[in-house]
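Before a colleague's protein record goes any further, I have to sign it off. Would you go through it and say whether the fold makes sense for this chain? Take the sequence as given and treat only the tokens as open to question. The record follows directly below this note.
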Amino acid sequence: MLLTMSLSLVPRVLRYVEAVAEHGSIQATSRAIGISASAIDRQIKLLEDHLDVQLFDRQSTGMETTVAGEMFIVLARRWRAEENTILSDVKRMQGIDLGLVRLATMDSLANGPLPRALSVIARDFPRVQIEVEIMTPDQAVAALNDGTADLALGFNIKAARDLHLMWTVDLPLVCVCAPDHPVADLASISVKEVRGFPLVVQSRALAIRRMLEARHSWLFTNAQPPVVTNSLQLLKQLVAAGTHLALTSQLDAASELANGRMVAIPISDTEIRSQSISLAVSVKRTLPRICSTVAEVLIREMSTCVNEITGASR
């Protein structure tokens, strides 16, 4: 099992700083972790006096971290990640698959193919805990870099100096529509033809929108699309209702394509770019072996899903 606060390898004062930042006050932290408020306050003040810097702004409404305080929170999270690595590797030496894996991923995957992979992990590695955080691709990369995530599974993540892609595959863009939409029986469709119908598009917070703007800016400048959203669920509901078209990947609408609520029409424009889906890790950290094991399962299950969706003929 994972270590409790009383047995944690993370220094006590770092745990207190992290807990106060989470709960917002000394008293709330005391109630949450079962340590006296005076003991928590004393440890934090000793550290502040030693550094000659405030870690918290103490206000009547609570405590907020200063810039220096945020630095110590990042340190605590990195220390905790190393703790997880050591404990997981020790257990692996004992023949036990145990540990914590922190996964940053996208909302579309959490509401699509990811649950299948998590079910396999739960079945095969019941003592492994998975923490799933929903983020944008940019936020997921930042989480890898600052050590608050072990793995990032998402769209359009690019390899970089400190970022390694364990797995990546291209996902061609398609037009998705309801089965009874006027374009549903077309063998292919151009972006210009898509624009002739009410369109729901992704907001600029998502990489696919930025990619579309780079190649097809007229989609957004000549006339504003009827609906712009950062919610994939809303996008899919509008498409399934038959009122709108959308440009996305088949993986975004995997379950709806599988159950017949939507159909996917290939885009005929040869210059349109594909999306990609990748599993990324930071090269700055050595991951516990259990993370590599979980990554192997994610890669296998996601590859199977991609092949099922993109290999199905219309």
